[in-house]
């Protein structure tokens, strides 16, 4: 894994921060408390989440949210991870907006899923525990300052457990313990399975009892089947008789239905005759009424027809209208002359109008008006006479039409009466025929009743036999059901026996597994663990001794580890107390121990030659020792080494120097120029 970029926002003393990581040896240099270690904690948080770290120790005081984004390369893949922290209450902070981007493709994941994905990408074969730090990362890549010397000061057993955990040897012990637990659990089940063999004789006795009961029931079924044969023969005979009777009854039923139809026809014919007679009576009364009405009509034919009178009347009225029009004009002219006479002067020509000529004209006009009035009176009298004649003509024509209506009604009544009388005659003939047919149907009804009683008697006997057969079949079904139950019990019991036998075989097989686990598998794990432990001890001892000698140029002093990984300092073939070492020598001892541990863990995890992170690795070193750190790290031939330190002497060992400064309580990172 190679780091490429880290972005911080509201993480500890950082409001904003961004780092682009180059390859080579990178030094983050700054005073104590400037915020150097925060960069490493933020990197670990981005990769693996909080682990056992409290979120309150990462999120800046007074801030409600913060985030970390890390880009890195691993096995040819470009990976970007993002985690944010959100304050939901004063004491509660949770992770949100977690995502991972692999070669440009982004995935939204939960914090646990993020850690599992990162471990898979890095190839770290370790359990996924979201509340724990990555073991391989802590012992193969990143060495926090507080853990540098801590491992040397631990009690032997505790340090040995740490080494076993780092080298993942603890898994062999867990495997042995789990194997022992499995063997113990398997023995419990095996004993239970084998003990069940005692139940087989009782179950076999049950099967014999079931077989005996089943045989008795089978005998009963044979008896029932024999009775059923006789019953079915009787039923078949009765059914044949009923079939013949049913056919006869159907024929007789046809006759009965005919009788009903004949009686209905008989009643309908009589009703029809009564109706026709009533209609004849009604027609007789109506005929008498019409003849009386006909006799009462007197016909007096006028000299002219109504149309002729109407025509003459229209001509006289037209003449009258002309006379009235002429009268109106003459009368108006006369009025005008009389007005002029009163005025004595013509308003048009201003001549006197009382001259004899004008007065003669007035007198002549008066005579014309009187003549017209006489003509008008004569015409009015003629109109009056014509109206009287028209009235008589209209009465005559109305009477003619009324006589025609009466004659038409009388012809209809006569025709109806003729039809009614013929229909009554025909119906009376049919009624006589129906009486003969009804008598024949009545005899068929008597025969039908006799056959029906015979049919009902045989049907009752058949029903009894059917009920008997049904009861026998129910009994047979019940017995068969009981036999099936016994079959099921026998099958279930046999299956139970087979299961017990399977369990017994399984128990014996489990005993074989238990023997293999206890006598082969667990001892093999112990031997494998011992071989790996000794090889790791030998390799660790070589690296530990080499790293210490490189940093401490004192030929009289050397270091080694015992079988429990306890560091031993030798001076001129004598064991030297660690507490008597100088501060720089103790730091060199701790650094050599951690570098050796890093080297062995990387080798075991298959991640050699990648990234190494050291936090304040030179505490107490002399300037000469600090100067050698760069050479030692270069000898490791790593692609990227990140060192966090306040020692300026390390600047000569670094390829790139990032300066970390705290200004007004806020940390800032200054990239190398």
What's the gist of this structure?
By secondary structure, this protein is an alpha/beta fold. 66% of the residues lie in helices and 14% in strands. It has 12 helices and 15 strands.
Key features?
alpha/beta; six-stranded antiparallel sheet; six-stranded mixed sheet; 12 helices; P-loop_NTPase; coiled coil; ATP hydrolysis activity
Please explain how this structure is put together:
GO terms for molecular function: ATP hydrolysis activity. Keywords: Coiled coil. The strands form 3 sheets. This protein has a 6-stranded antiparallel β-sheet with strand order 2-1-4-5-6-7, with helices on one face. It has a 6-stranded mixed β-sheet with strand order 8-12-13-3-14-15. It has a domain of 273 residues: P-loop containing nucleotide triphosphate hydrolases (Rossmann fold), CATH 3.40.50.300. With 673 residues, it is of the alpha/beta class. The longest helix has 196 residues. Helix 8 packs antiparallel against helix 10. 66% of the residues lie in helices and 14% in strands. The chain has 12 helices and 15 strands.
Rounded mean pLDDT is 84
Specify the biggest β-sheet.
Answer: 6 strands, antiparallel
* Largest sheet: spatial strand order: 2-1-4-5-6-7
The outline comes out as: elongated
Name the CATH homologous superfamily of the domain at 2-153 and 552-672.
P-loop containing nucleotide triphosphate hydrolases
State Rg: 69 Å
CATH class of the domain at 2-153 and 552-672: Alpha Beta
**How many alpha or pi helices?**
12
Content-based structural category: alpha/beta
Q: Using the 3D structure, state the CATH architecture of the domain at 2-153 and 552-672.
A: 3-Layer(aba) Sandwich
GO molecular function: ATP hydrolysis activity
InterPro entries: P-loop_NTPase
Keywords: Coiled coil
């Amino acid at each position: 894994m190679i780091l490429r970029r880290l972005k911080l926002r509201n993480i500890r003393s950082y409001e904003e921060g961004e780092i682009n990581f180059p390859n080579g040896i990178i030094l983050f240099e700054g005073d104590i408390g400037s915020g150097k270690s925060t960069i490493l904690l933020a990197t670990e948080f981005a990769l693996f989440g909080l682990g056992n770290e409290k979120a309150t120790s990462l999120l800046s005081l007074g801030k409600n949210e913060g985030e970390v984004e890390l880009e890195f390369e691993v096995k040819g893949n470009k990976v970007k991870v993002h985690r944010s922290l959100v304050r939901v209450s004063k004491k509660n902070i949770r992770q949100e907006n977690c995502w991972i981007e692999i070669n440009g493709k982004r995935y939204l994941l939960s914090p646990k899923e993020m850690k599992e994905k990162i471990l898979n990408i890095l190839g770290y074969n370790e359990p996924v525990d979201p509340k724990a730090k990555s073991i391989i990362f802590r012992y193969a890549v990143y060495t926090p300052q507080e853990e540098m010397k801590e491992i040397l000061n631990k009690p032997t057993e505790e340090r040995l457990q740490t080494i076993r955990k780092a080298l993942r040897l603890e898994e062999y012990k867990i495997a042995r313990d789990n194997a022992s637990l499995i063997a113990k659990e398997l023995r419990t089940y095996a004993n239970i399975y084998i003990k069940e063999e005692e139940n087989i004789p009782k179950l076999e006795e049950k099967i014999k009892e079931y077989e005996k009961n089943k045989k008795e029931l089978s005998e009963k079924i044979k008896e029932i089947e024999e009775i059923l044969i006789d019953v079915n023969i009787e039923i078949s005979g009765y059914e044949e008789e009923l079939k013949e009777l049913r056919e006869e009854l159907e024929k007789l039923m046809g006759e009965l239905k005919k009788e009903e139809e004949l009686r209905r026809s008989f009643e309908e014919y009589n009703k029809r005759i009564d109706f026709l007679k009533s209609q004849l009576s009604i027609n007789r009364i109506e005929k008498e009424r019409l003849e009386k009405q006909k006799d009462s009509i007197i016909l007096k034919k006028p000299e002219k027809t109504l149309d002729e009178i109407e025509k003459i009347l229209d001509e006289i009225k037209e003449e009258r209208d002309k006379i009235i029009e002429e009268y109106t004009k003459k009368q108006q002219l006369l009025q005008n002359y009389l007005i002029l006479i009163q005025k004595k002067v013509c308003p048009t020509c201003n001549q006197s109008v009382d001259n004899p000529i004008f007065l003669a004209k007035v007198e002549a006009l008066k005579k014309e008006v009187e003549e017209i009035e006489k003509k008008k009176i004569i015409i009015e009298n003629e109109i009056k006479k014509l109206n009287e004649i028209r009235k008589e003509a209209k009465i005559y024509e109305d009477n003619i039409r009324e006589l025609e209506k009466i004659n038409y009604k009388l012809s209809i009544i006569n025709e109806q009466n003729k039809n009614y009388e013929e229909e009554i005659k025909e119906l009376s003939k049919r009624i006589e025929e129906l009486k003969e047919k009804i008598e024949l149907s009545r005899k068929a009804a008597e025969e039908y009743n006799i056959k029906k009683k015979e049919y009902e008697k045989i049907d009752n006997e058949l029903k009894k036999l059917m009920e008997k057969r049904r009861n026998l079949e129910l009994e047979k079904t019940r017995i068969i059901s009981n036999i099936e139950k016994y079959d099921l019990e026998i099958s279930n019991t046999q299956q139970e026996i087979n299961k017990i036998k399977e369990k017994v075989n399984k128990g014996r097989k489990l005993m074989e597994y238990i023997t293999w686990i206890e006598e082969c598998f667990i001892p093999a794990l112990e031997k494998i663990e011992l071989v790996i432990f000794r090889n790791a001890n030998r390799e660790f001892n070589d690296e530990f001794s080499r790293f210490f000698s490189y940093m401490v140029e004192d030929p009289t002093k050397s270091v080694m580890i015992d079988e429990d990984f306890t560091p031993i300092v030798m001076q001129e073939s004598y064991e030297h107390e660690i507490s008597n070492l100088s501060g720089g020598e103790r730091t060199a001892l701790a650094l050599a121990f951690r570098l050796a541990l890093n080297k062995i863990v990387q080798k075991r995890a298959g991640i050699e030659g990648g990234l190494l992170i050291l936090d304040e690795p030179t505490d107490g070193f002399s300037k000469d020792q600090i100067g050698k750190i760069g050479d030692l790290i270069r000898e490791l031939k790593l692609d990227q080494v990140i060192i966090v330190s306040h020692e300026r002497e390390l600047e000569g060992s670094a390829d790139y120097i990032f300066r970390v400064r705290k200004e007004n309580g806020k940390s800032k990172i200054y990239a190398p120029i």
